[in-house]
Design goal:
CATH superfamily: Cupredoxins -  blue copper proteins
Bound molecules: copper (II) ion
CATH topology: Immunoglobulin-like
Number of helices: 2
Number of strands: 10
Oligomer: single chain
Helix content: 10-25%
Strand order of the largest sheet: 1-8-5-2-3
Length: 177
């Protein structure tokens, strides 16, 4: 049964990740926390590190009466080479976070967060936004990529907290007719 083998492999993988997490409690040792720095990962760009901001993008976090938690906007096109300042406003009653990464990195990190629900990120590609506050995150989109931004607090992505970023070398809206 392929399904049985898959489940067993998944369980072994999860317990391995959990024991790794317990052994390394320093924030910098989170699995994949520094993923943008590893050449074998899909490159998601790099921290802006004091570079000149070329574009500011405001993102509002809202919680709806019907139970959704949302980023607005939830899809963003960015030109390759842009240094972006995200201004993230949390209008919700709950605390949230903004975590930028590749789809693969986020899927792995999400599994790990379910084991560490009280974890707060302290990485250049993530920021925690308390209810009613605003935070900024600066990022250099140095190469073409399809990326995701999510809130990895358990249950929040499922409630709608994810969006996509497409980094292209050209943007259709800037090309005219
Ligand atoms: Cu959230």
């Amino acid at each position: 049964m392929n399904f049985g083998v898959f489940t067993l492999t998944t369980l072994i993988g999860c317990s391995f990740m959990a024991s790794g997490a317990l052994a390394n409690t320093r924030i910098g040792d989170q699995p994949h926390a520094q993923g943008y720095n590893h050449p074998e990962h899909v490159s998601i760009g790099r921290p802006a590190a004091g570079g000149t901001i070329t574009r500011t993008i405001e993102i509002n976090i809202k919680e709806t009466k019907s139970g959704y938690m949302l980023f607005d906007p939830d899809a963003i096109h960015i030109k390759e080479g842009s240094v972006v300042r995200f201004v993230i406003n949390n209008f919700g009653d709950l605390d949230h976070e903004f975590f930028l990464g590749s789809f693969d990195e986020i899927a792995k990190h999400k599994q790990w967060m379910q084991k560490q629900p009280d974890m707060k990120h302290d990485d250049p590609n993530a920021v925690f936004i308390a209810s009613g506050t605003s935070e900024t995150l600066d990022w250099n989109f140095s190469n073409k990529a399809n990326l995701e931004y999510v809130c990895l607090i358990p249950g929040h992505r499922e409630a709608g907290m994810f969006g996509v970023i497409m980094v292209h070398d050209h943007l259709a809206r800037e090309q005219g007719n």
